[in-house]
Hints:
This protein is α+β, with helices and mostly antiparallel strands. The protein has one domain (3-241). The chain is built from 9 helices and 8 strands. Strands 4-5-6-7-8 form a 5-stranded antiparallel β-sheet. The chain starts with a helix and ends in an 8-residue tail after the last helix. Residues 42, 49, 101, 104, 107, 112, 116 line the site of one iron/sulfur cluster.
Amino acid sequence: MSETIALLNFADLYSGFQAPISEFDCGKKCAPHNPGGKPFCCDTCHAVPTVYHAEWDYLEANTDLWHIWRGDDCADTAADADAERARLQAETPDDMRLVACLGPDQCQRDFRGLTCRQFPFYPYLDSSGEFLGLSYYWEYEYQCWVISNLHVVQSAYREQFIKAFEQLFSHYPEDVNSYQAHSEEMRDKFNKQRRAIPLLHRNGFTYKISTHNERLRRVTVESLAKFGPYKIAAELPFPEETV
Ligand code: SF4
Ligand code: SF4
C-alpha cells in the first residue's frame, strides 16, 4: 500500500457524498424488473461491489454490514462459484477487494461503499485526461432505471460526485488512468454502435459527446435515450402509473 493511499479518510469522503441520486428511492423503480426482487445494483448476481483496502479497513472497524464476497450467491455448483470468483478477481485492481453486504433490507446508508454511492455513474475523462463529469456504466442500460431517466439526477448529487472523485484522485492518482481508459473504452464501443456518449457535465449542463472528435453538443437531459422496459413504459399512455 502506498503512502498516499493510507492518507485518504473514507469517513470524510462518505460524509461529503451523501446526497441521493433522485428525490425518491430509485430501487423501487428497478427492483420489479429483477427476478431476484432486489435493486440491480444491490444484487451480487448483477453487480459485485468493490472497496479499496483502506475503505475496507474503515468499514470493517465500524460496521457489520459487509463481508468478503464468497462468490457462491448465484452459482449452481461450487465449481461455478470458484470460476466466477477467479474471473472477477482477475478483473479487480490490486488495491481493491470484492465484497458483499447483508442485502437491501439491512442496508446502512452511512456505510454504503463508494461503489454504491457512485452507481450507475463513473467519472468520464476525455482523451487529454480532463475530468468532464459523469457518464454511466453502459452494460446496465437495460437494468438500471436511472440510466433511462437521467433527468432525475439532482444537482447536489452531481456536485458531490465531482468533489468525491476529485478527492479520490488526489489520493489515488493511478485511478485517473483507469477511468481515462474506461472512458476510452466507452468511446470505442459507442463509436462502433454509432452512438454519442451522454454526459452530465460538471458545469451542470447535459451534453452528447461525439465519439469521432470528442466534441460536446449541449442537449436537454430529457432528450436522452431510454432502454428496455423503461423505454416501453415511457411510451405507454400513462407512464407515471408504471415502474
Ligand atoms: S441506481 Fe439504478 S440499479 Fe441502482 S437502485 Fe437505482 S435504478 Fe436500480
Ligand atoms: S450497502 Fe446498501 S446500497 Fe450498497 S449494495 Fe448493499 S444494500 Fe445496496
